[in-house]
Write a structure and sequence with these properties.
This protein is of the alpha+beta class. The chain contains four helices and four strands; from the N terminus they run ααββααββ. Strands 2-1-3-4 form a four-stranded mixed beta sheet. Helix 1 packs antiparallel against helix 2, helix 2 crosses helix 3 and helix 3 crosses helix 4.
């Protein structure tokens, strides 16, 4: 598990939600942190990858833990929207920037999507 990458993202989430009610921020942060081990297992198995928009995407027809992946992507979207609102930038741009950071700090052996849409294993 790449703790640096997730630690950085959790700090980012914490900073963004300073403007939001404390309970909501803690809830999103806690939910995302709780999912890290299960998401890492799916990435290690090659079932899930990080797409070029900053979201998780299935790489195979098998879709274990689909509810969890959907919830993670929903929370990521909320974070990107909050950051975008705070910075005056579209949420899509925030997600794309986050995707680049995920790749830079990502674990070897996991799947990532290039800006042009091609998938590769790091």
């Amino acid at each position: 598990m790449n703790l640096f990458r997730y630690s950085f993202f959790m700090v980012l989430v914490s900073c963004v939600f300073l403007l939001a009610p404390a309970a909501q921020a803690a809830s999103v942060k806690e939910r995302m942190a709780a999912r890290i081990p299960a998401i890492t297992v799916l990435k290690d198995q090659g079932l899930v990858g990080e797409n070029n928009m900053g979201f998780l995407e299935y790489r195979t027809a098998a879709r274990p833990e689909e509810k969890m992946i959907t919830e993670e992507n929903r929370d990521r979207k909320a974070v990107y929207e909050a950051i975008g609102k705070n910075q005056g930038a579209p949420a899509e741009l925030v997600g794309q920037r986050r995707a680049k950071m995920i790749v830079e700090n990502g674990k070897a052996g996991h799947w990532y999507q290039k800006p042009g849409g091609e998938w590769y294993k790091k």
